[in-house]
Each structure stands twice: as structure tokens, then as C-alpha cells.
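Page 42, continued from yesterday. The earlier attempt failed because a stray header line got pasted into the input along with the sequence. Redoing it now with the clean sequence only.
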Amino acid sequence: SLYGTGINPGQANIVALAVTAACARVHKVMVREAVDATHYASRDTWEALGFGGPADAPGLAEKVRERALVFIDTVEMMADALKVQLDDIGFRADFATANEDLHLGYMDIGKGMVCGLRMAYSGLVNGTSVIELQLVWRLGYAMTPDWPVEGYVIEIEGDPNVRANFHTVHDKTGGGSPTAMNAVHAIAAVCSARPGIVTAAELPLITAAYSVVTDGR
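This time it went through. C-alpha cells are written below.
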């Protein structure tokens, strides 16, 4: 049995699906990840997304779309969980540029070059977005537009409207721990699942079972 998860795609999308249970009607489900990714020291990743180059490079938006196709899978998973038949999945991307030369240690970004990315994958029905995954990634602290760091924001347009926000505050375990733990805690459920690719909608509620500390440490 195969199951892919993390924070996003992963927990953020599962939380969004759970929040829809409060609604009598749902018009749109939006999940936005807006993070300062400066300390994610993967030059190859950022250069593949256009960081460090000109914002008007030919074909840049399409290059970004193809590099992050995992979010299309996530839109489809959420649509399946909500029993929505999508007509298409749209994409858009905007780029922010550095106000000064940025020296990040693992790469340099010149003034005027791309240091921020805002993109969205939209599940469309009759031309209207009903599921939208937005991502805002920024490197450095001097960019235009100066998109805010909000963590993970979930907004449901419906009856009623719902807004939720969560942050992971990292300690000595580092930023990778919350991503990894979503997979670790799912092991028992995945081992019990049917063979093949399974989605969050098929698994039971995943919690930090057996991880509650009661000895004060």
C-alpha cells in the first residue's frame, strides 16, 4: 500500500477537508501555504523554479507548473473526497523580485531577479474555482511584492464561511520533523489499507497515537 503525505501536500489539505464538515454548503475550499523558505538550502530546487533569474524569462510559468505537479494530485484527491467532478485544473504564477543583492549562503540572487513565487492550482467546475491550492514561497527579506508570511491558511466559502490557520513552531527537531511525522503516524493505517495507492480520504483519522508524554519530559 502506498500513501504520500507531509505538511503540504498532506496535513494542510486533510485539515481543510475536515473543516468542511461544519458547512451545510461549500462553494470553495482554499488552502494557502505562505512561508519564508530562506533556510531551505536547495539551490537546485530554487533554480528549477526560476529563482535567481529574470521574472520575464520565456516559459517560466509553465516550467514552474511542471515542477510542482504534485499539487494537481492533491486537488484531485480533495475533489474526490468531496465528491466533486472537476472539469479542469487551472494554474497561475506570479514572481517577486529582490530589492537588493541577496547572499543566502547556498546561492546568490541579484537585485531585480526572482526571489519569491506565488502560484495556485485551481480545480474548476463550469469555469469556477471550487478547490484552490495557493503557495507563496520567498527567499530573503527584501522583495517586491512583499507577500506576507502567514503559515497555512484554510478558507471555506460556504454556509457558514470558515477560516483556520496553523503554524508549526520548530524546536531542536528542525523544520523537517512536522513533515515526516505525518508519514510516521500513518504507518499502521497504511499497513492495514488495501493494496495500491491510497488517499487521505480512505484512511482513518491519523493522530499522534502512543506519542503523548505523561512523565513531564
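Notes: Residues 82 and 209 are 26 Å apart (CA to CA).
Reminder to self: strip header lines before submitting.
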